[in-house]
Amino acid sequence: MTEYHNPYHFVPVKSKGRIHDVTWQDFLRSPGHVTHDRYCPGTFSGRIVCRLTTESPIFIGARRERDPSREMPGKVSPFTLDEKPAIPASTLRGMISSIAEAASNSALRILQEEPYSFRQTRKESLSAIGMVIIERDNGGQPILDKYHNPKCRLLPLTLPTILISSGKPVTLPTEYAGLFPEPNLKVYIGNKDSIRGADFPYETYCRDHDKFYGLALRPWSWQSFYDKREILRDECLNIKNSYLLAQKPLINDEAPRPWNEIPEKERKDYMRGILRVLGCCGRKDIPSSKKHELFIPYPEGVEKWKTFEILPEAIERFYDLADQRTEGSEDGAEWPLPYEPKGTKRNPNPADKKFRFKDGDLVYFRPASAQKIGWISLSSIWRSRVQTRSGYDGLRATAHSFFEQVDPELLPFNADRKVLTIAEQLFGFVESDKSNDNRPVLTLASRLFFSHAHIQGIKRPNSEEWLPDNKGLNDPSLPAVTLKILGNPKPPCPALYFKESNGKPKYIGKNVLEPGSRHHPQGRKFYLHHRLNHMVAGHEPWRSRFQASSVQSDLEECRFKQKTEITPLKPRAVFYFCIDFDNLSADEMGLLLYALKPTPDFRHKLGMGKPIGLGQVNIEPVGVFRVDRQERYTIAGFSGERYSQVWLAPNEDRDRWPDAYALEKRAEGDTLDKNALQEAFRVTMDKDIRQAIELLGDPKMVKARVHTPLVEGGELNDEKDTFRWFVANDTRSGSKSKESRTKADPICLEPLNSLSTRLPTLPALSEED
Fold first, then answer.
1. Beta bridge partners of 272
2. pLDDT of residue 733
3. DSSP letter assigned to residue 209
4. Is there a contact between 185 and 159 (Cβ–Cβ < 8 Å)?
5. pLDDT at 335
6. Nearest to 649, CA basis, from 623, 686, 670, 626
7. Is 509 exposed, middle or buried (0-12, 13-18, 19+ CB in 10 A)?
8. pLDDT mean across residues, the chain
9. Structure-model confidence comparison of residues 601 and 241, the more confident one
10. Closest-CA residue to 588 (of 661, 504, 680, 673)
């Protein structure tokens, strides 16, 4: 079985072990050296000069252009300064700060509060159908619930799927007892081809055009329905694998007839009903497995049937999940997600694309308890969400929910935080979600100031010598290339993103993932390097096999709208940049130096395309220059040398530095022990965190190919159906007999810790496992 590395892994986060935290109350009373209003004695101020060499192609984008009238990739222009390639200070700062945060187990200064949702399995699907009724006051205005949504009730219409067990009478599942005055069963209409035709004549029932239809159906009573013998011999029932799904018309393949066109004398042989039509024509994402639409019996007097409360939590959960899908739809999409049934208004406000319930909307449902409706959806297999607790009343869980369970101080600074972590003290922060109290919003500017990185030349192959700008550097860019789709599995993806709280590797199913004492996030994501010496020209891991410059397939297969065309920078390009720093403690100085170069073999990643092999760079601090701020404000210091202490990289030739560093080129002073500062911080680090960072940053630790999880044979088409590995993996969970379970255990990403000596690999699963 083929083994490969996942494109990313995680540096763990810990609940304890930080020794540099400062309470924000103490910070406000006496910030000490964490200040901008004065230079503090005993601190470090000065400049670090760094050389950055690209080891793989890299790309930092600027302006993006796309022609909406053409199915072609968007083109992104590279970031330049004075018409030369450059790396923006913000990119450098983000790259170094991510290492510093991880190394010090500091708060995640940027963490999206993204809710986690996932597609339900067939086992969790909803099958009963009902109609939404908006509750209104005497003036006809909707009554609002505790979430400020209109209160809704449900009129149950068709029965859920029912298991017909051997030797047992037919019964409704317990939670549905008492909801249905009559045993209504839905009817499948149409077929795979007819429902996709532009001439399919039907639409979903709507109060604005309440059109009724008729079908010749077998009349049912509860007495006959509960007679198992009668059910099993009834040829008008749709039974599959011992499940009663629906009923069939008495007349084979009869299409619903408009009720007002059925003569009065014939109506006794027909059941009045309404239609629920998703409408496949023009909606590309509807799976090819869909084979029918629905006729829903709606007998005379149904308006007097009892209705039941839809719990406010059910409505809030539905809107939360539906809005996530709408926000994830392509801009300007003709059919935003989730698809509403054809003929149903999406929203009372035509300009609003969010789906909101109206009187008469048809939904799938399941009760919670006490004849209250706890789950509703637009389709039988809907989405579910990770919640703070299971059940209908659980609140949505986000990335914040999980990191908060490890340690609330890991979240971006907010009103509930108690301390400032060292990375926040060093790189700054802005408080979010401030509580409504009288204190000011807390903010702190960084005491580090990054310059842009300017290109200076290109190294010769297999040499440390490089050609400067004025001696042969003509075009440092590679030819334009269309990248593969830059996609990751949609969170929560617990097989990769989460672990047991005890740190042991174990597969976690989406439907059991829950923040708390059992499940913790793997940590902070970092991308692995690729094996550069094994790359074949024209087949690099970032290169799409569909190139915009030579289209040889139909455009739909190319999926160009999801791709980008770039002109990467060549490997061996040499840049210089600097970091100015003020008022750093010895620990902060050590942290900064560690983040720049954790080990001699460490390589950073930056720019676009990190998961597909772009962005590997070697950063070398080549000079550290300390200013004695106290001395500089004396008479002697004013006329003396700017720098009091200097560290230079071994065998460093300062004459090759750019002219922008003329002062640093000639700087002399006492020796600054840079290595001692860095090592002093390194030995204070959590051992699990240190080992993970240093493994992930060392290209020599990559022993196999690096790519997204694929099923066996998927390498031949690794740009399509990348979800198959996850489906195959999830299918292994609970689907095998006890005897074969050892061969079919689902796979998870092994966490990194201090005992890790390698980067773990994943197997290419077979879809037949």
1. 214
2. 59
3. B
4. yes
5. 84
6. 623
7. middle
8. 89
9. 601
10. 680
Judge residue 235's burial from the number of C-beta atoms within 10 Å of its C-beta, 0-12 exposed, 13-18 middle, 19 or more buried.
Answer: exposed
Pull the structure tokens for residue 277: 């039509």
Q: Is residue 145 a contact partner of residue 151, using CB atoms and an 8 Å limit? A: yes
Residue written as token pair 């007495």: 223
SS3 state of residue 699: helix
- Per-residue pLDDT tens for 709-753? 888 876 666 777 777 888 888 887 554 444 444 456 889 999 999
Tens-digit pLDDT profile for residues 50-105 = 999 999 999 999 988 876 666 778 899 999 999 899 999 999 999 999 999 999 99
Give the separation between CA 453 and CA 622, rounded to whole angstroms: 14
At 739 the pLDDT is 43
Q: Report the 3 state secondary structure along 599-657.
A: CCCCCEECCCCHHHCCCEEEEEEEEEEEECHHHHCCHHHHHCCCCCEEEECCCCCHHHC
Report whether pLDDT(405) > 80: yes
pLDDT, tens digit (0-9, with 9 covering 90-100), for 277-314: 998 887 877 877 888 999 999 999 999 999 999 999 99
- Other CB atoms within a 10 A radius of the CB of residue 428 amount to 16
**Between 588 and 17, residue with greater pLDDT:** 588
Q: What percent of the chain has pLDDT over 90?
A: 60
Instruction: Show the tokens assigned to 620.
Output: 């070398």
CA distance 545 to 533: 20
Alpha-carbon dihedral sign for residues 491, 495, 497, 500 = positive
What length does the chain have?
769
674-682 and 586-596 are packed helices; what angle lies between their axes, rounded to 10 degrees?
A: 90
d(CA 680, CA 594): 10
Which tokens in the block code for residue 241? Answer: 């694998």
Would you state the structure tokens that stand for residue 662, as one six-digit string? 């003329």
How far is it, in rounded angstroms, from Cα 523 to Cα 521?
Answer: 5
pTM above 0.90, yes or no: no
Calpha distance 627→632 (Å, rounded): 8
Distance in angstroms (rounded) separating the CA atoms of residues 355 and 363: 12
| 3-class DSSP assignment, residue 326 | helix
Q: If DSSP codes are grouped into helix, strand and coil, which group holds residue 227?
A: coil
Looking at this protein, which amino acid is placed at residue 476?
Answer: P
Are the beta carbons of 248 and 237 closer than 8 angstroms? yes
Q: State both tokens at 147.
A: 């979430």
Return d(Cα 753, Cα 11) in angstroms, integer.
Answer: 8
Distance separating alpha carbons of residues 417 and 182, to the nearest angstrom: 56
Stretch (H or E) spanning 244: strand 243-247
Q: How far apart are CA 643 and CA 328, in angstroms?
A: 53
pLDDT value of residue 737 = 41
DSSP at 182: S
> Phi then psi for 24, rounded to 5 degrees?
-70, -25
Q: Which residue has the tokens 């149903």?
A: 344
Instruction: Tell which wins on pLDDT, 89 or 231.
Output: 89
Q: What is the pLDDT of residue 280?
A: 86
SS3 276: strand
- Which amino acid does the sequence have at 302? V
Return all residues near 370 (Cβ < 8 A) that are at least 6 apart: none
Closest CA to 530 of 465, 615, 461, 643: 615
Residues near 756 by beta carbon (within 8 Å), at least 6 away in sequence: 691, 692, 695
Which of 417-431, 473-487, 551-565, 733-747: highest mean pLDDT?
417-431
Encoding tokens for residue 113? 């509060």
HSE (side-chain half, CA atoms, 13 Å) at 647:
19
Burial tier of 343 (Cβ tally within 10 Å: 0-12, 13-18, 19+): middle
| pLDDT of the residue at 510 | 86
